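[09:14] KT: can someone run the structure on this one? pasting the chain below
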Amino acid sequence: MDARHDGLGLALWHLCHAYLALPDAPPEVRAAAERILAAFVPVRRELHARYATEAARARAHRPMLTELAADLALLPVAGGGTAASWATAFVDAGDGLDDLLSNRATALADGEGASGPRAIATRARTLGVINRARAAIGDDLVDDPSLPRNLDALVFGYFDLLDRRPAGAPPPPPPVV
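[09:31] RB: done, structure tokens below
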């Protein structure tokens, strides 16, 4: 779904830039291409954003399909359609990403992934590794007085925040290093 979304966005981006580069493009076509770019893909690197970001943008883009319908109709594309078909498919793919993320979140909330036997075993192994590392750092603090006294908090503080959060609460933002 992400490849479809990004590919359609890139095609729309290239289409608009092609019309902008065309020396004999009528001014109204150039203006339409500029508005379409500004609305849907103002910066090409946006096509490589996180899935949740792309899904949120799709929700914001949906009304623009109506607002820019006349502009989208001005730009013909291969196969006999117009940029409207590409823009609609682009937004639909972003909505598809949103659906996939929502389904994944629902599955996790229903316990299909977060509380299954493999997830519980993985969590227990991970906590074991963290506790062994914490003990090793404690030993190093005893043996090497030059280490900062708050080394445990510096290394494991975020894990402690995650461990103390209420069930179902979103994770705190990671620390800035």
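[09:33] KT: thanks! DSSP finds seven helices and no strands in the chain.
[09:34] RB: yep, looked fine to me
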